[in-house]
């Protein structure tokens, strides 16, 4: 019987974890019979539930269905990127839920009215405890896992995200030519880029503050925002600073590599990111990154490839970012070369080693 690989992620789409699930399926389809189990897909004669209802209901119903499937056997590996389902390998790419709640709500108790915040830790614990191996995509995530679940310490393997070297690389054209192609302001002193989903968590308000500071110092910079999220909460700040027109929203784009190549810097002052794919992709394109210590991707950055802010809440942090952007010049080739060990092919090999280890362990247990 051919070896089976089941990839479990409730959502399908363009989010970070969803892209990882798709990449895993593509990478291993030549080695195993691969099945992607996402809500709305058909498997074993049934439509997988989990697309309708509030978040807690979608996750509970999806987990219940996945755990009922005949996929847990000696000739299979269940690789989960989702809270809840039983699995052989759990990729903890969403971090630790309790810590995420603390970051978002602080001392406020308003989280308590949301049933999801009560259910998620129970689902999360099951994922950690059922897995033979837990994959963290940064040492930041690994430390949070061990802090919260010390009993799984020996299971945890760190595998950094990888980028597609055929797509993300230093452009042959100069920035001005790429900017003209994309309709970006060629006359800008600096073009800053924010790329990602969920603008509040990604730090759009901090990026607007940096832009404001740059303009106060006579630097006519533009902020280009790529991805999806709610930008309404920063509109008043943009108007009050006189920056209408200097912040441009492009939505979800298919050619994001060109935006990395066109930008002077990526500004991702995130509240928390286990490991930002966008930051890694920007570096691979030779675009320096300004981010926070709460981004796992900060672990792979060098002093010449950007700035890591220790605490974005400190008064001087915005000024620090603006000064860095105005005063620094960058070597795109050196920045790109600094992450060549983080290609998708190397990531694939690391995952393959873990998957094969599970198959070997199951074989010995027969």
TrEMBL record:
Keyword entries, A-Z: Glycosyltransferase, Transferase
Domain (Glycosyltransferase subfamily 4-like N-terminal): residue spans on this chain: 14-165
A GO BP entry: carbohydrate derivative metabolic process
Magnesium found in the keyword field: no
Enzyme Commission number(s) from the entry: 2.4.-.-
Pfam families assigned: Glyco_transf_4, Glycos_transf_1
Top-level taxon: Bacteria
Domain Glycosyl transferase family: 178-324
Keyword hit for Transferase: yes
Top EC class of this enzyme: transferase
GO molecular function annotations of the record: glycosyltransferase activity
Protein name: Glycosyltransferase family 4 protein
Species annotation: Methylomarinum roseum
